[in-house]
Amino acid sequence: MSDTTASTAEGKKADRKAKVDAIHATVLQLAEAVADPNHGDETFNNYLRFVSQFHQYSYNNVCSVLAHRPTASRIAGFRAWLKVGRYVKKGEKGIPILVPFHRESRTVVDEATGEETEEPGRVYYGVGYVFDVSQTEGEPLPNFKADLGEDGKSLLAAAVRAAQGLGFSVTFEPIFGDVNGYSNALTGAITLNSERSAGILCQTIIHECAHSILHRRALGEKQDPQAHALIEGEAEAVSVVVMHWSGHDTASNGAAYCRNHACSAGVIRGSLARISTCAGQIIVAMDAELQAAGVLVADDMDRVESDGGQVEATTVAVG
After folding, report:
1. Do 287 and 165 form a contact (C-beta atoms < 8 A)?
2. What is the spatial distance between Cα 95 and Cα 61, in angstroms, rounded to a whole number?
């Protein structure tokens, strides 16, 4: 390989790495914005809305979409849009996201000695591009979601089955006082107040399911007030995300909870990642239950593309 060729290859690799680093920087900027008491609540609520819309995408990629296209409502790769009869408008710039690539293990032969060695497989992350529906034109997208009904009974039934599918038992019984429900710190079992309406219990079971996934051990330990605030804030934020996904907007003061725990953007970044991952896990479980019950119809686009599964072909890998 000539010096010129080597220099060009190194330059391309540096450019790719810079694109990946830029996405990581965007993630940290979001955490710093949430930590800001002057603007954090609005930023946090926008983030929760994005998580509900793009739950099949990773935390890093949700942050990137939010930063590059705050008005995005539906995203897909170039080829995925073609499959549903829509075309990216001329001149539109793609939204960068991180895309994982898996290289299989291979046998490498030393040219000098002829010795063979096994090189293990590796995972690479490169930058691919997706486009919001507003950047496309063509056939109208169908509305795949059916009306869940005002009483929320179908949603509650799906949430109960989803929690059970995740390994947590769910029981209904009268609970004295203003408690809507609670979860067992050791087993994750969820108890709901049978005296409450289905709408309230929908939010409650999701909140408690988040506790069971994220905080089971922590709930059984003695906590200082700040740690307790963070735990409650994360669970409530997960509930807001899942309810928003189902078409119901609920209030959240999760940003204040996070700030009360620590002003460090690093700590808040960890919290945002946990919220995103947990909410996605619950949404996937509930989505399957609602489809099985005939309340929701499968959305083929969501099945085709998950975190860049078929993003634009210009995606590159970074070693």
Report:
1. no
2. 10
**Using one digit for the tens of pLDDT, what is the confidence trace for 74-119?**
888 898 888 888 999 999 999 999 888 777 777 877 777 878 788 7
233 CB-contact burial (10 Å; exposed 0-12 / middle 13-18 / buried 19+):
buried
Cα–Cα distance between 308 and 74 in angstroms, integer? 14
- Phi, then psi, of 313 in degrees rounded to 5: -65, -10
Q: In which element (H, E) is residue 97 found?
A: strand 95-103
3-state secondary structure of 130: strand
Q: Scan for tokens 């490498």, then name that residue.
A: 108
SS3 of 221, please? coil
Token readout for 192 is: 């709901």
Let me know if 157 is exposed, middle or buried by CB neighbors in 10 A (0-12, 13-18, 19+).
middle
Report the candidate in 9, 13, 26 with the shortest Cα–Cα distance to residue 97: 26
DSSP class of residue 89 equals P
The pLDDT, as a whole number, for residue 268 is: 73
**This prediction's pTM:** 0.72
Instruction: Write the DSSP string, 229-274.
Output: HHHHHHHHHHHHHHHHHTT------HHHHHHHH---HHHHHHHHHH
Residue of 98, 70, 62, 170 lying closest to 315 (CA atoms): 98
Tell me how far apart the alpha carbons of residues 319 and 304 are, in angstroms, rounded to a whole number: 26
pLDDT band (50, 70, 90) for residue 308: very low
Q: Which two tokens stand for residue 217?
A: 């051990």
Pairing of the two strands 190-193 and 170-173: parallel
Please state which of the ranges 35-49, 91-105, 219-233, 305-319 shows the lowest mean pLDDT.
Answer: 305-319
Dist. CA 245–CA 54, nearest whole Å: 9
Please count the helices (runs of H) and the strands (runs of E) in the chain: 11, 10
Q: Are 21 and 267 in contact (CB under 8 A)?
A: no
Is the pLDDT score of 306 beyond 50? no
